[in-house]
Amino acid sequence: MLRRAFRRLASSLVVLWGVVTLAFVINFALPGDPARIVAGPQARPADVARIRQKLGLDRPLLEQYGRYLQRLIHPGPRSPDRRDEVHGSCGALGPLHVDLGVSYQQHRPVLELLLSRLPASLLLAAAAMLVQLAVGLVTGTAAAVRRGTLADKGVVALTLLGVSAPTFLLGLGLQYLFAYRLRWLPFDGYGQSSGERLLSVVLPALTLGLFGAAYYTRLVRDEVLGQLGQDYARTALAKGASRLRVLVVHVLRNTLLPLVTVVGLDFGTLLGGAIVTEKLFRWPGLGQLSVDAVVERDGPVILGTVLVASTAVLAANLLVDLSYALLDPRSRGRGG
Amino acid sequence: MKSGLGLVGVLVLFATLGPWVAGQDPNLSDFVRGVDGQGLPVGPGAAHWLGTDGLFRDELARLAHGARLSLAIALLSTVLSTVIGGVVGVVSGYLAGGRWGWVDGLLMRLVDVMLSFPYLLLVMAVGAALEQTGPGTVLLVLGLTSWLGTARLIRSKTMVLREQGYVEAARALGQRTLPLLLRHIVPGVVGPLVVVSTIGMASMILAESVLSYLQVGVQPPTATWGRMLYEGQHGMTLQPRLVLAPGVAILLSVLGFNLLGEGLRDALDPRQAR
Amino acid sequence: MRRSLLAALVLLGGCDAALPGPIGRAGDPAAPPRRGGWLRLASYTNVRTLDPAVAFDEIANAIEHFLFAKLLDFSPDGEGFVPDLAERWHVSDDGLRITFHLRRGARFHDGDEVQARDIKRSLERALHPDTPCPISSFYERIAGYQDYVQRKASDIAGLKVEGDYTLVVELSEPDATMLSVLALPTAAPVCRSAGARYDRDFSARPCGAGPFRFQSWEPGRHVRVERFDAYHEPGRPYLDGIEYALGVPTFTQRFKFEGGQLDYMREFGEADLARYLASPAWRGLGSWDLGRAVHALFLNNEIPPFDQRQVRQAVAAAIRRDQIAAVRPGSVRPASRILPPAIPGHNTAPGQRYDLDRALALMREAGYPYDPATGKGGYPHEIPYVAVNDSFDVEAAQILQQHLARIGLRIRIRAQGWPAYLAETSRRRTVAIGSDGWAADFPDPSNFFEPLFASRAISEEESQNRAFYRNPTLDALLVSARKETDPARRLDLYRKAEDMVLDDAPWAVLYTKRWFELWHPYVRNYRPNPARSEALSFAWIDPDARAAARAQRWAPPLSRGRIARWVSGGR
Fold first, then answer.
1. pLDDT band at residue A107, thresholds of 50, 70 and 90?
2. Neighbours of chain A (3+ CB pairs under 8 A)
3. pLDDT of A14-25, one tens digit each?
4. Which of A39, A102, A236, C571 sees the fewest Cβ atoms within 10 Å?
5. Which of A47, A54, A81 to mutate to test the interface with C (most CBs of C within 10 A)?
6. pLDDT at C7 > cutoff 60
7. What is residue A77's predicted lDDT score, i.e. its pLDDT?
């Protein structure tokens, strides 16, 4: 078990290194000169050159790559020079320190920026997950129990419609109806107080969540149908257990395991990948940060957001994989 | 299945005949009959059946030309992604565990890296790096970034096929690798590939619209549904129809391909039918 | 199911609720100012830094004008300057010496007196080679600037402190823009605690000598500034403070403004703007700013076919500027000259004019005759046109494309992100045609001509002169204008320069953009400053009008009964 965990961890780290390298290459291949963007359109060549040198962008690419990796994880704290525009504050991981550099545009350490965006992303991911789980479990189970009825067919059709709707179409519709026409909820943005925030998260969470809900509904329906067809459920029913009891005690419990897997993976994706929804609702999360960074050629921030998003996905994968191994003894022997 | 086929049929019909029926230049602004008394784009009427868009161009003509392009991009990028995914999957699955296993390992790590990379960021970045010149680049971007799932599926399918008795026998008889793959493995993976690519069409139509929404899609003034949706968003509160028209078009065609894909899956693999 | 579908359709098609009217009525303009109250503003953007040495975006600038006093400020009537920390100043006859006499007793927010050496220290802090100041070279004509940025000198020799209250700025050559750039927040004195060198942390606790002192900044939420009681103009400012909410979406701003939770607003969505302008209740309130930015397309003078003057002139004559403006009525105005209305020297006479026949004739002269009837002829190749994504440029380009097709020039639009646009268009012999524009850094014509059309703004990689336009006569004219100390004669020289450029057509001028500023009538004594938006430091609030109005408002904008009626289709 422990060996397996180590092997998975090592392989994840290799993948992470690949991600950083890919991000570095993409970042370099993007057109445009970051120093020029920092300096702005009114800057004259001398100003641009000075800023380029300050950001270390005048060095050869391989040297920049080496420096980035070296700085990314290094032992012991480096004396933080406040005037240095390249080094950011460090986050500590035991004896190792993590330094993601300083944003070209915002003049703040990337780690600090990421941490400041994390609550918004977590809130949105959690709310969206709540929507898709609640809707998925209820409608999926209902449809399975009422299999073949008009209601079931309706649910199946609706879920197909749900996975077919572009995210932003759904989002635009919700904005128009609930924010613009009815004014029940904020149109977009994050809100100033925590109360406003809870209201603000509703529409983006629905936008993200309804898409997932359609998918979860199908998943739950199929899974419940499968379980209902199993011998143990039939036996329990034959023995005279009530339908509700069978459903709740046996069937749903067995449905949860595959669901947990999907939820874990999805949460990782949601955390870093809600780009369209965040843009549409001007939600100040990690997705928005990464899009802005690409638009502004803010290299350290691009790399930072990619790292966070990939780490979230890989960590979710790892956890799901390991918990599977724990829960399901049969899979222990097999490699992955 | 039937309704899916119907929807897709209507879509193809609209894409082929629509531009001709609409009869107007989709890129021409009509500052005379396309503007209403308040200076806004006109609504549906005789001169413009579906009204005009924010630049006073005929909405129906744009919708029809957009259908053509959106569909073509989706089709070609799906073909591209299916071919890449199929080849990588078969090669990887066939070599896995053997003397050439490291090729499989390398390919699968590549898949891992790309899968854990934020997809939209990858697409945006590739789009921006290719300097996004036209529909060709868009379909390239889509095709090159979407073969990962297919590859994984086909790989596992191939690994199963490889262990089948007739394949082992052929190998024992000394049949060379390429003919063996073509004769025994490829026919076995065609079924799943067809299903995956039909559903892939649906996600390509969605992805194209997302790209246009994120400004890395086809260049203006060329109409695609995604671009139209993006452009309609600005005046949404005044003229919701400009969002509704392309939005419904996308919704229906994605739905059509999804229905068709599910129908095909059930037909090809009856065990999974629910 | 059917009923709810119907309800949804009714909701989608139903007409708008009427716009609530303004709060309070305009008072007697001669009424004495009243003290107290917080003014509330909002923007959808975010503040990145509040350090005046490095910030250069609009919203940070607006807040910096609250926090920092400058030597002098742009006059609200659009011409010349008004005193701020400097009581008076004197420019020597040769234009090489500017002497500032500082007012006595002006204080920083932390209590120190503002003295001449603080101004020298703050400027040296901003211009130091280690400070990422984006506009450092605006100050390059201060004597000793070059030695300082090349680290050959430890201070700027041309900044001379003569006693506590006199600062002399010596120039290496006459520069009529020096007063303007000294009025920018970049040159504003910062507290002694900020030290002599730039430090990232200063932005978290900015300290200056402005009418308001820093209270708090929560990134992404708000910046609060409160009245500085020891401000050097007695009795001012009147407000207790200003709260600037950040990251507030435009729709939310509108709803809050209607509800009286915002006092001032200028970031309108297009549709909302149209509604306010059409609403009888708001007639006569608010004001358009004059427009500080001009938008155009550049024609690269080094790339065919635009190396031919006739082709450039044909482009300028083929464009119907009214049709571009028709796409955004209100905020976009057709423009035919380079200097926008808010800039001294703006000329109201028409410049480049639409004349299709002339354009076709010019194309013929250039050797590319085009027959509009058959569509034959014209320039044989398709030309890529570069525009910036997510901006009105892209829409304008699609209209232009149709105009240019009518004289036989086929362009293909390449909408790009800002970074790619900037990199490509400023590289030599790379982009033949594309959108261009300029927003004034300070209200002076030189800020348009020197970067955009002077040959010294051409370089291989980082040209600001994207048209790569080279005209020795213009260069000479610009040099003499820079050295001219008489304002009227100087503006005349720029008028001549403008006519020259318009005729040579390295640019086809397209439109100007302007903002609409709107505030509730209980906000008094606000006069929009042509040099910047939100110059609200010395506004005051009529507390009675605001309170009375607040009491009668604050019902939810849509009552449940009304929704019920809508849903049941009774409307």
1. confident
2. B, C
3. 888 988 898 888
4. C571
5. A47
6. no
7. 59
- Options 3.40.50.1220, 1.20.1280.170, 1.10.3720.10, 1.10.357.10; CATH of A112-331: 1.10.3720.10
Q: How confident is the model at residue C465 (pLDDT cuts 50, 70, 90)?
A: very high
Residue linked to tokens 């300028």: C316
CB contact under 8 A, C252 and A189: yes
pLDDT > 70? residue A41: no
* Chain C nearest C-alpha distance from B219 (Å): 6
Round to whole Å and give the CA distance between A336 and C400. 58
| pLDDT tens digits for range C525-562 | 888 877 777 788 889 998 877 776 665 544 444 444 44
Q: Give the minimum alpha-carbon distance from C360 to chain B in angstroms, rounded to a whole number.
A: 20
Q: For residue A131, what are the CA distances in angstroms to A93, A125, A178, A330, C130? A: 34, 10, 17, 33, 50
Which residues are CB-neighbours of C35 under 8 A, at least 6 positions away? C238, C239, C240, C540
Q: Give the residue among C508, C107, C522 at the shortest CA–CA distance from C299.
A: C508
- At residue A327, the pLDDT reads 65
Mean pLDDT of C286-300: 91
- The answer to whether A28 and A68 have CB atoms below 8 angstroms apart is no
Contact C331, C512 (CB under 8 A): no
- CATH code of the domain occupying B2-12+58-273: 1.10.3720.10
Q: Which residues of chain B have a CB within 8 Å of the CB of C417?
A: 128, 215
| Domains defined for chain C, CATH in brackets | 2-44+211-289+516-568 (3.40.190.10), 66-199 (3.90.76.10), 293-513 (3.10.105.10)
The token pair that represents C58 in the structure block: 């609009």
As for the ipTM of the complex, it is 0.84
- Look up tokens 């008094």; give the residue: C524
List, for residues C132-168, the tens digit of each pLDDT value. 888 888 899 999 999 999 999 999 999 999 999 999 9
C-alpha C101/C-alpha C164 separation (Å) is 10
- Whole-number pLDDT of residue C377: 92
Q: Exposed, middle or buried: residue C265 (CB in 10 Å: 0-12, 13-18, 19+)?
A: buried
| Type of residue at C202 | F
B236 lies within 8 A of chain A by CB: yes
- Please give, rounded to a whole number of angstroms, the shortest distance from the CA of B256 to a CA of chain C: 22
Q: Cis bond leading into A77, ω under 30°?
A: no
Flag if B215 and C413 touch (Cβ within 8 Å): no
Report residue B205 as tokens.
């139509």
Tell me how far CA of residue C433 lies from CA of B222, C377, C383, C404, C461, in angstroms: 19, 20, 8, 12, 17
